[in-house]
Write a structure and sequence with these properties.
five-stranded parallel β-sheet, about 475 residues, 21 helices, globular
Length: about 475
């Protein structure tokens, strides 16, 4: 059996030699190139288990090689070496399809961990080729056939081949943990643990011990050595759910663990390496949390390398029938349960502020009241909600109208019903802004310059809002 072969691309002879020696000691075969041109010649002749390239080369940039390998050699992972402090370059490379990155000065233990992860990907691809099968779509947890869900699953498949940290955003109940589990299930780490941690459910005094473990006698009650979440997820994936709820003191310790890829148990004097793929999730806007000072900016950039946004259920109403059927099968305990056409129509016109989790609760309650397993509209007991896609749009003329004085407002403005108040004002305002921008882009056929003029804002302001609200050009 031949050893896996790795291509090292770097114009620094000393660093290239150090990498070669380290990889040869791991039992690997090595080819070395000092330029992009030489690397291309090697790639044309040989199939590699991993390509490791510097970002700056005499005849170009490593990002060019990342793009070429990603496009032409899709089964070959490629990692980049970035200069110290060049986080922006690392993010660019990861978004272009790089598997992972190392920062100079290169830590040899980090190099070994990264190479082992890349070899698992290569071996997984070879195994799939031999068996001529891949993960069945039915094995995935996120269900739906809408355009939004098909695009989301395609994005998850791409993310699964990377080691880059992923930040999953979306409203409560939209399936963030399911998305994280799907990323893990399609990755080369699928035979290793997946550990989900609710950061908001751990008492602050116990956080360090829960995340990193502790030694016997480290504190009162520590009767035995115990591993933490990082050790439990070693080789696999660690999901930090509701990461915005972490206190600042714990954010500092988490940042070091992610940067160094090592953890120190409470009461221990030495660190131990861990190989963990980090996925974070939150329903809050992390960028806003950074602005308010409740979330560290450096940790934000470490976690938010690639963002995955989950659409709310009201933006994929075509999936409600399929979701409802699957939920009823699970809740029915073998009994036949179904929605009447009127009940299905009622669900499709509901706004679902609680998303899929709310749909599950509605159906579970309705099933208890249904006659012979047939759910009618009255069984759903849907709460009153505003019609979909009817958010008021403020026109310049409306904005310019004079406001009545305080006394007139108090007399003429009726009290707002509690049921009409959104559960999260920032999320509601973001949704209104997102809808207005999408209408402007649709009207201008996605000409951002014209859309900005239509909205009365600058092109730069529109670009910033599109990035913040995750509005992308149609493929």
């Amino acid at each position: 059996m031949t050893s896996p072969r790795i291509l090292v691309v770097d114009d620094e002879a000393d660093l290239r030699e150090l990498l070669e020696i380290t990889l040869i000691k791991m039992g690997l075969d090595i080819d070395s190139a000092a330029t992009l041109e030489a690397a291309r010649d090697y790639l044309a002749k040989t199939e590699y288990a991993l390509v490791l390239t510097d970002m700056r080369l005499p005849d170009g940039l490593g990002i060019e090689l990342v793009q070429e390998v990603t496009a032409q050699y899709k089964n070959t992972p490629i990692a980049v070496i970035t200069a110290f402090g060049s986080a922006d370059n690392a993010v660019i490379a990861l978004k272009a399809g790089a598997f992972d990155y190392l920062s100079k000065p290169v830590g040899l233990e980090q190099l070994r961990v990264m190479v082992r992860s890349a070899l698992r990907i290569s071996q997984g691809v070879a195994s799939d080729k031999a068996n001529q099968k891949a993960i069945a779509p039915t094995a995935l947890r996120l269900m739906g056939q809408s355009d939004a869900m098909q695009a989301l699953r395609a994005q998850i498949a791409r993310l699964a081949r990377s080691m880059a940290p992923v930040a999953i955003s979306g409203e409560s109940g939209s399936g963030k943990e399911l998305a994280a589990r799907d990323i893990h299930a399609q990755s080369a780490r699928n035979d290793k643990p997946f550990v989900a941690v609710n950061c908001g459910a751990i008492p602050e005094a116990l956080m360090e011990a829960e995340f990193f473990g502790y030694r016997k006698g480290a504190f009162t009650g520590a009767a035995d050595d115990r591993d933490g979440f990082f050790q439990a997820a070693n080789g696999g994936t660690l999901l930090l759910d509701e990461v915005a709820d972490l206190p600042l003191a714990m954010q500092v310790k988490l940042l070091r663990a992610i940067q160094e890829r090592c953890v120190r148990k409470v009461g221990a004097t030495v660190e131990e390496p861990v190989d963990v793929r980090i996925i974070s999730a939150t329903h809050q806007n992390l960028h806003d949390c950074v602005g308010k000072g409740t979330f560290r900016q450096d940790l934000y950039y470490r976690l938010n390398v690639i963002e995955l946004h989950l659409p709310p259920l009201r933006e994929r109403l075509d999936d409600i029938g399929l979701l409802a059927q699957a939920i009823l099968v699970r809740l029915g305990s073998g009994e036949q349960a179904a929605l009447s056409p009127a009940a299905l129509a009622a669900l499709c016109s509901y706004s679902f502020p609680g998303n899929v989790r709310e749909l599950e609760n509605i159906l579970e309650r309705a099933l208890a009241f249904a006659n012979d397993g047939l759910i009618e509209v009255t069984d759903l007991a849907l709460k009153a909600s505003p019609p979909l896609n009817t958010a008021p749009v403020l026109t310049p003329a409306a904005v310019s109208q004079p406001m009545p004085d305080q006394a007139e407002r108090e007399i003429s403005t009726p009290p707002v019903p509690t049921s009409d108040i959104p559960q999260s004002l920032p999320d509601h305002l973001d949704e209104v802004e997102r809808e207005i921008i999408r209408r402007a882009l649709a009207k201008t056929r996605f000409n951002r310059t014209q859309a900005a003029e239509l909205l009365g804002i600058s092109f730069r302001q529109l670009r910033y809002r599109m990035q913040r609200l995750d509005i992308n050009a149609p493929e």
